[in-house]
Structures are given as C-alpha cells and as structure tokens.
Amino acid sequence: MGAPFEKPFDLIVVGAGHAGCEAALCGARLGWRVIVFCLSTDHVAFMPCNPHIGGSSKGHLVREIDALGGEMGQAIDHTFLQSRMLNLSKGPAVHSLRAQADKQAYSAYMRRALEKEENIFLKQAEVTKILTDEENRVTGAETATGLRVSARALILCAGTYLSSRCLTGETITASGPNGLQMSGALSKNLEKMGIRLRRFKTGTPARMDGKSLDYSKMQIQEGDVPVRPFSFDTDPKAVQKEQVPCYLTYTNKITHDIIKENIHRSPIYAGVIEGIGPRYCPSIEDKVVRFADKERHQVFVEPEGAHTDEVYIDGMSSSMPEDVQWKMYRSVPGLENCRIVKAAYAIEYDCLESGQLTPRLEIRGFSGLYCAGQLNGSSGYEEAAAQGLFAALQAAAFLKGEEGIRIDRSEGYIGVLVDDLVHKELTEPYRMMTSRAEYRLLLRQDNADTRLREKGFRAGLVSREKIERLRKKEEVIASEIRRMKETVISPSGELNAILEEAGTTPVTGQTTLAALLTRPQVTLQTLHAIDSTRPSYASDAYPAHVADEIAEQIEIRIKYEGYLLRQERQVVQFRKQEERVLPKNIDYQSIRGLRLEAAEKLSRLQPETVGAASRIAGVNPADIAVLLVYLEKRA
Amino acid sequence: MKSGDVTPGVHDTIVAISTAMSDAGIGIVRISGPDAVAVADRIVVNARREHDLRERKTATIRFGYVVNGEGGVLDQALVSVFLAPHSYTGEDTVEINVHGGHLVTEETLSLLLKSGKQKGVRGTVRVAQPGEFTRRAFFNGKMDLTQAEAVQDLISANSRFAMKNAAEQLSGRLKERLQSMREALLHETAFLEAALDDPDVYGEELSSHGEKLKAVIGDLRQKTKEMLSTYEEGALRKNGIRCAIIGPVNAGKSSLLNALSGREKAIVSALPGTTRDIIEVSVQMREVLLHFSDTAGLRKTADPVEHEGVLRAREEAKEADIVLLLLDMEKPGEEGVKETLRTLKEKPLIAVLTKADLYDEQKREAAQRVLKRMLEEEGLSRTPSEVISSVTGEGMDELKERILQRLRIDRIVPREDFYLTSARHKEALSEAEESLRLAEDAIAQKTPEDLYLSDLMDAYRAFSAILGEAVEEDLIDKIFRDFCMGK
Fold first, then answer.
1. pTM score
2. Which residues from B are below 8 Å from A222, CB to CB?
3. Could you give the ipTM of this predicted complex?
4. Domain region containing A611
5. CATH number of A474's domain
6. Does some domain include residue B5?
7. Quick one: A38 and A152 in the same domain?
8. Helix, strand, coil shares of chain B as percentages rounded to 5?
C-alpha cells in the first residue's frame, strides 16, 4: 500500500524512545517532514528501567543535549520528583546532576513535545523493512501491515526491541521490555541487507508496591535545596518544589545465601543467556558471585512516579526465577513484607556488531541510513538521546547536501561517546563514564553551553536569541576574569582578617584578586568586601539567574586555571592528529610494515583521521608511525 | 627499535644468518614467518632424504641435510622447528644448523631465498633487517619493549656488568618492577574513578581514603626516584667510563696508554708533541670498562697540526667522565699546569705523578708536596693523586681503582642490583616522577580528586610508554573488574 500522505516525508525515525524522540524533534525543528514509527504510541520516551535521568557523566550528556538544542533537559526539568547534584565536594569536572523522574509524566511530556511539532507524524506500526535502491540509498520503509512510506533518510532507533526476549529464571518470553511487543522481522531484514548483528543483554530489578515497604528501617535520601535545573533555558525558580524522597537499605548474608543456593537457576549461570551483559551494571547475582568478600550491597528504593505507589528497587536487578526473587527481596530490611508488582528480568536483544558505523552514525556502505541508541551497543537513556540528536543533525545535513557538525573528544561527551561507539570493539553495552573523557576537566557540565551552543546555532537548532544571550554571558565572564587578574591588592588588616576568617594564610606582599581566588578556601563571596570595583553581573541581555552562572564560571576558570591550561595544551596535541585526514582509498593491506591485525582493523573501520586510527584497539603506536611515513611518501 | 623507522613488511617471511660470519664450527641460518616451514622444507631433508618438515612438531630438532634444487647435498644439518606461537618471534620459525664458514651459511641463505621465490609460496621471503626477529617478538607479545631493548644491549654488551644487567632486564626485571608500580597506581586511580562515578556507593569510603592514597603515591614516587638514581651509575657502568689523559708535553701520557693496553698503541718519543690525534684504549676493571684516551700535550705551539691536537685534547677533557692530569715528577708545577687546572674545576679529576721508576722516595715526597700546594691554591685540595710508573707498572691498578672510587662505582655490584641504563627509560621515569610530585602536592593541598587524577594518569602513561604498551582500556577494565558499580 502506497502512502496516502499529502506531502512526502523527508525523514523516517524508527522508534520513539529516548533516541527516537530527540531525532524526530531535531529533524522537524530543522524543517524536515518526519514520520516516527513506534510499536506503541502510549510508550513514547518510555523508561523501562531506572527512574532517573542524569548521574555521573550522564548528567553531562543531558546538558550537552540541551546546549545543542535537544529536548531531554527541558523534559526532565518539567517532570522530576527529586534532584541532586552529585560530587559537589569534588572538583567541578565531576559534578553531575541526577533527577528522579516521574516516568509517566516524562513520557507524556515527550509525547506532547512531538505532537506540538507540525512536521512530526507519530505513527504506531512495526517497521519490517527498510527500502533502498540499487545503490544502497535509503528510499523508505515498509510496515508489518504493508504501509510503505518514502523518505531519503532513515534513523533506526530500535532500542532493545530487536528479536528480544525476557528471562525470569526458567521463564522466557519473546518480548521487548516490560511485556511490550518486540520486532523480529526488522532484525531479519537488517541481516538480509548485510548488516551484522550480535546479542547484548541487560537487566532490571523488581518493582514493588510502596505500601508494602517499611521505610522506617531505611535511610531517607532527600533532594537538594535549592534544585539546579538541567536546561540552560530553565529559570531555577521554576524548579523549586516539594521533592519526593528515595530510601537506602542493604542486602545481607541471608540475601547472599539465598542467591548462592539458587544460582544454578539463574539463566546466566545456567548458560541460557547468550548475550553479553554490562559489567558496570551487574545483577545482584553477579555482585554476590564476583564480589564475594562484600558483606552487603546497597539497595535504593526510588519512586516510579507521583501518581503510583510503585517503587523501583535500584541495585538489585536480577534474572532469578520469581519464587527466588520473593525470598531474596524479602530478606532485605524494610522489604520483609514486600509485594512484587513486576518481577525483575533480564533482557537479551540484537544490536549492531562493532565496526559498521561511520563517525556520522551512518551505516557504512549505505547512504541515508543512520542508527542511534542501544542498537549501536550503548546503554542508558541519556546515551541514546545524545545519539538520536547527533544522528538527526547528520541526517538533516545529508538531506540538505551538507556536512554535518562534528564534535570531537575534546569538545563534548557526545564526541567521546560517538567516537568510542564508532572505533571501539565493544564487548558489553557501552555506558558513558567521566573517566572515558581524556579532557574531562574541560568537558564540564557547567560549561556545556560554552562548548556546544554555537554548534547548535550553526546547525539551526538553537535560536538567535539564545545564542546572543550566551555570547553576552561569555563577554562578561572574559572581561571580569581580565579585571580580576589585573586588579592589584595590597595587604591590609581588613584583607587579612577576611583571609583568616576563611581559613587561609594572610598576605604580606601585593597580589591580585585572581591570585587570591586560586586559594582553595577563597570564593568570590569571600572577596566581596575588599573588591569595591566589582561590576554587577546582571544584564538586560539575559535572565537574572545567568549572573549566578557567570560567577560560577569565573570561579572555576580562575581557580583551576593551571589544570585547565595543561589539558588545553594536551588538546592542541590531540587536534594535530585529528586534523591529519586519512584518504578514503588507502589499501591498508598493501602498506609495508603495517601488522596484519592493524591492517585488518584499519580496512574494516576506515578511520577518517590519524587520531581516530590511533584509538582503534589493535592499532599500536608503531603502526601509526608506519602509517605516518606512508602518508608522507604518498604526499 | 626507533619508532620512526619504516618497518618493512611484517607478514613477510624473513631469513638471516644468525651467527657471526667466521670460520666457526657451526653457523645458524634462521627463517621466521608464515612461509618459514614451507620454504625451509624445500631445502632440507631428513636422514632418509625425505622432505618432512611440515610434519614436524614444535620445538623439535632432527638431523638431516641441506640440499639444492638438483638434489645435491650442500651440508649436513641439525634442523629445529618452532611453530607459532611457541618460538622466539611468536611466528613459525626454522633454524638450520650447518657447518660454519661464510660459504656454507651464505649458500644456505640463498637457497632459502630462492626457494621462497618458487610457486606455492604465498608471501614474500626476504633477508631480515637488523633486529627484525626481536621486533617481531615484541610485536607478537613475546616480550615487552624493555626486554626487546635488553636483547640489543645483551648482544652489544662489552663488559660483564652490561651483560649481566641486560640479562636481568631481558628476564623481565625492569618489566616486572614497572608493571607492579603501574598496577598499584592503576588500582588507586580506578578506585577514585569508581568512587567519582558512583558517589552513592563509594562516597563514604572515598572521604577517608586520602591518607592511604598519599602513602601509595609517596611510595611510588620514592621507588621511581630510586630507579632514577641508578641511572647515572648504570649508564657509566654500561657504556664504560671515558677517561681523558691530559697533561703537559712529555708527561708520559702515551706511555701510560701503552702500559694500560699492554702494547705499543701510541708512539712514544722523547720529542715533545709527538701525539697529535687522540688514541684510545679500553681496559676492563672490575666489570667496568675504562676507555682511556691519550691526547696531545698541552702547550702553545706554532705548528697548526699540533695546535689542532691541543684543541682536541681540551675538547676531550670536557667530554670525558673523568680527567687524569699527568705530571712529570721532575716538574709537577711546570708552566701551564695551573691554567689547565683552572679549566677543570667542574670535572672529576685525578692528578697523576709519572715516571716513579726514575726517582727515589725523597724526590717523590717533594713532588707530592708541590702538587698538594698547587691544588690547594687552586681550591682543588680534595683532588686525589696517584704515583705511577708505566715502566714497572707501579701504581697502575691503584690508578684504575681510584678512577672507580672517584666516580663512586668502586663497589662490587651485588647480583640482585639492577640499574637503569637507557636514556629513554630515564626520560619517561622523570616524567612519571614529575606527575607523581604534582599529584602529591595536590593531595597535600586538598585539591579535589578529579583534578589530580589527570596527573596520576600521566604517570601511568609514562610507565606504560617504557613498556611499549598503550593505555587504552586499562583503566575502564580495572574499574569494572575491581569495583562493584551499582546505581
């Protein structure tokens, strides 16, 4: 059946999870007509696992998405139940925002966001076939019910729904997460197209009826006051509200004994599961076996939403049979009388084998075919959303006949994420971590706007008004840093009293405001009394709260200048390698001196720069030296 | 093993004569690479004259013959087969032991190359580049970079010390030490990363971790410094000590050199200014090589050739590890000596009174007094002095001993001692030490962990560079392996 639409679509998005939503919104906001297919329109931006957005490094991703003009930051700012800035006592590079989401509200918000876009048509249907012409160019897609839609670009955001099956002990169901329909046909179609797939697995803990828990036996965990929003465009005033607490309890020896006695019934230990699970998010069985000397593990009880009693039992994901689960969970203090609403399960799914993606998240060998999210081997809502946005920026540029934006490893976590997914041989679902970012001190959540908003503006996703606001903010920061470096302060009784009050040593000679600020105990606030010439950071060009962001930037950039400069110098070295482009037509097998393994990896992954080549596992520094010599001779 | 070298085809099969080119009892021709067995099989037969190399098991040695294409026998041979990965290079390797001598080994080599050009051989068969077998061993993970370097050191060792130290390095001494330091560093780094990544789980533990971390970093820095402190002595011991023999004309410099070498290396004459070029002799003293260089006598001269010789002598003194200033016992304070002393103030120096055989005790004491006063006047009163005779050999061993003493390398190296001898290792360790220092300072100032973690990773990278390993996924792997991440 041909498509009965008045105007043809430009872009097809398959899946309306976190990747699909960002992809669709980005495509539509850049002026393209987008059709979004999903298996259930009632589960748009569904959160089938943990009920929070953000966290270490993931919070960075959300702020980067926001800086580029994506939706996730706004969505969580509107629907959070509790919010905390993690690692506040550490350096600014690892401060990370994490918010508990009201899952239903989050999903509803995102569905509304899609529906508000005139260019988006949200359609419930299972895509079973990707249509391409004889030159492997995308021409459209076909659904299980025979509907055919044409478009020049398609972004696959199939999540964990490809040929998935869920396992709870011996019980195996062929379904997607949370009992939702899976798609087997699309998997087969992809393989038929020559795309190689593999199995990954992940898991989720039980959901319980909150009324059945005894919170008096647990530690309460409250949110921050005041709350800091995710989005650079959210007024902090709008997010100060009554928050819902989480609770902390622990497993114990009895829990661990129950697990050990029944370990043979875990599908993983029984060898039923073929997929590879993530080490960073181990099931409780894994924790008990792998970290046998640990006497207890933390269990966080987190709300699933404001309109339900259901709670999420974080830290105890499992694929044990349900009868074992009841015993196991009930051994935990506070959960003795728990009623399990949804049993824990492991899920296995198809995703792309490594090495098939270009740095534009396009499948190599095809034109117009992009992939984002868990299909690419990642895990996590934020990783998915970041890819969805990035892939859509590339697809939109492709539709226009232009080059898409680039984000390298020194510019954003999104850059690190994409680069890793493209060049690494993944052996487990990939999760973002701050330690994956070489230039972590530069890639802070507080400066995501500085790093990426201009790119969003150039791509057309960030409005002129917003970019002007940022530029003004930067101007004030720069001139204020200059002033503080130039303002000479002579020692005085007043100054030394202030310094001693702050817990630092008095000064004896002349110094500058900036030099004083580099002392760990000194803040801008400390200096206020002796800094009579300080200008106001307020301006008509931006909302009032931006003044606080400015003060934060000044403090960070002056306090950590030494560290930041060192990383900036490393970035200069890094960029040199990134700028050395590798010609497309290199026959690596013919380069004398290149080891077999390196030649094989390079021909398969086709890195676009020397820098990218050097990051491929199995390509060592000597191979890069050979490659450089080859390039010089060739030139 | 310079990284900038163009390494020739690594999937080629390589051939080389592995023993010295001399009329030795045996000579070994080695072939390594994917086609090694097939190529060698065509030119060797077993005792029953069958080509059976392909059926041989790994690490076997059999008697046989090297044959040419026409079935003629070139030589008897012992043929060893080592199959990948159980060989030195990690590839299939065949070693053909023939009788020594240029012709037999060269002919065997050329038969192998010829055989490699025949049909049925997939890849290229060619002569190996210097060090290529070892390079392959490194690339194939049979050894780390420090061990590969040790092979080179072992081959070129010219003193017992250099040999022993290289052998230690080859056995993995340096590798193991670095690996254990690196592992300790990585463990701390991974813990910090895990704690920063998952503050809900590790936050508490992290807040009480500072003291332990300080101790670990301090210990690592101390170990790094200790290793670095062996370099100067290690390099001297490995490369030998350059001893410049300088002094006025006719002070007996060439005689000393000849006496040291045990033969007439330098022309000795009573005619002042005989020596013009620099002549060298190397002598082993307690496992250390002493490289003596005889130089032109220092004097003002109109002869342009001799003048050039004097310039070279001063240059040699500047470059040397130690200077022996030779003075004729007859006239230790002769003209020009004081000026020379002034140019040598920064150098380890030994004053040597020569021609002891010509003078009695009284004369010797007088000369020593003059010398002592002169040294005192120049602020060099701590300069040791020796009395020698190149004719009787008196004082020669004492002089050599004194050189070792002066450079503080006179002790006998205990077996368990290991010295850093490579400038590359020293550079990288210095970088590691500097990064550890920055981290230590940062911890002392209560700087947040995420900031000095970059210093710790820099130190880790420096250690890895010595081993020739890439860092890549080490940290992430370690985080996942050792720490239980939860939320």
1. 0.83
2. none
3. 0.88
4. 580-634
5. 1.10.10.1800
6. no
7. yes
8. 50, 15, 35
